[in-house]
Amino acid sequence: MKKALVLLTALLAALMIPSCNNQPAPVSNDSTETTAEAETTAEVTTENSKDEKDFIEVYPMGENKINVSRQSVVDYIHQMANVEWTPKETVTYTQSEPWKIDLTYEAGVPHRGVVYAFNHGSLAGFAAKLNEGLYDDTLEWSKAVGNDCTTAVMAAWQFVSPTTTYTSTAEMFSNSGTGVIPVGEYNWNDFLTDSTEVTKKTKKEEMFEIYATLQPGDILLSRWKDAGHCRLVDCETPTITRRKGTEQILGNHSYVTISEQNSSWNNKADGYKTTWKINEIYTFETLYSNSYIPVTCVELATGLADAPRFTIEGRATATELAEKGRLKGKLTSNYRLYSVDITITDADGNVKFETTTYPTDREVTLSSFNSKASLFDYPAGTYTITIEASIGPGTVTVDEQTFTKN
To answer: CB within 8 A of 312, min separation 6: which ones?
Structure first.
């Protein structure tokens, strides 16, 4: 069975805007690595792909490491920041602790960017709620398909990283075991959740030199007491100014540009409302004064990531589909699943059923589709069920089964 790996959906391409660095990361010539930037078709011939197996495992790009692009991380966060929409209803968020929120989404007013919400929303999940640009679902803070500063950069990182697992800024320190590592050499190991202690123990001049090495997709993290904030670097290299005749970096004249999701409105927005900032300038002095420390993930640091892997455990065989008419099993990937599509066609290729779900993690229970698929209602005949999953490197046909209902 051929497993097709394709690039991002047309929706993502339509939303893409240029970033400060429009050149992709260099691609290694090592023949044991596969680039995630090119359209690829992979042949899967494992024994477990047979229709009567209740477990399958698919490596659509092979089992070796793949190359990752820092620019794809930047592009994705820019796409999230620039999706255009209008609220269907007016909703107000207010909170004073542990950080301040005072946002009113006004019905009928143009907005840009995935909504600020206490959730793990992706671009695809948010866009699915838009009906001709109108957000046609609840905007309640704990339920809306949105994200905050942490989960926004997580969605961008997980585009290329199968190892990052943090859920808050408290888990973004390099000793947290969540796939986050420091950029440069500074004393982070003694401090668990407070970046103010890190900057106190690191000389300003030393941190400025580390800021100067930041690359697209790296994160600037600040954490204090019970709150924190993070920003994603979105330009190729910081702008550095040194004191004439010396190597000293002038912090007020050196800067990096970032993208970020915020709990307040961006007052620079003209003609629309947004909580997002893109290509926003922050000086080294401002970053250091607010205890921002630079971190990244292993995949961005090395330019390599584990190859995408998919499994379906407890899978319904073709015989079970014909006799019981129910999907079952758990679809899992080592990458975040941005969407999972189920399509059922008849012997003539006519689509009898199709639906999409938008997970917030790496797995989906296939039985959750049974209430919609209604295989029991189908007349006798031959049908094919196709399961596709979208991850950062592309969209993969994970499974395709043909069964005959008598």
So the answer is: 55, 56, 329, 330, 331, 332, 366, 387, 398, 399
Structure tokens at 136: 């046609």
Rounded distance between C-alpha atoms, residue 107 and residue 404, angstroms: 50
Q: What local confidence, expressed as pLDDT, does residue 95 receive?
A: 74
Residue-wise pLDDT for 91-150, tens only, equals 998 876 666 788 999 999 999 999 999 888 999 999 999 999 999 888 888 889 999 999
Percent above pLDDT 90 for the chain: 67
Q: Which residue has the tokens 């602790």?
A: 97
Query: In the structure encoding, which two tokens stand for residue 332, read together?
Result: 């899992």
Say if residues 7 and 396 touch (Cβ distance below 8 Å). no
Predicted TM-score (pTM) of this structure: 0.84
Q: State how far the Cα of 151 lies from the Cα of 168, in Å rounded to an integer.
A: 8
Read off the pLDDT of residues 343-357 as tens digits, 9 standing for 90 and up: 999 999 999 999 999
Tokens (6 digits) for 227: 């709150």
Report the C-alpha gap between 5 and 42 in whole angstroms.
7
Secondary structure of residue 42 in the 3-state scheme: strand
Question: Could you tell me how far CA 386 lies from the centroid of its own chain?
Answer: 24
* Token digits of residue 164: 């990052």
Where do we find the tokens 């909580």? 275
Query: Locate tokens 């796939």: which residue?
Result: 179
Q: Which two tokens stand for residue 57?
A: 């495992």
d(CA 45, CA 103) in angstroms, rounded, equals 53
Angle between helices 149-157 and 70-82 (to 10 degrees): 140
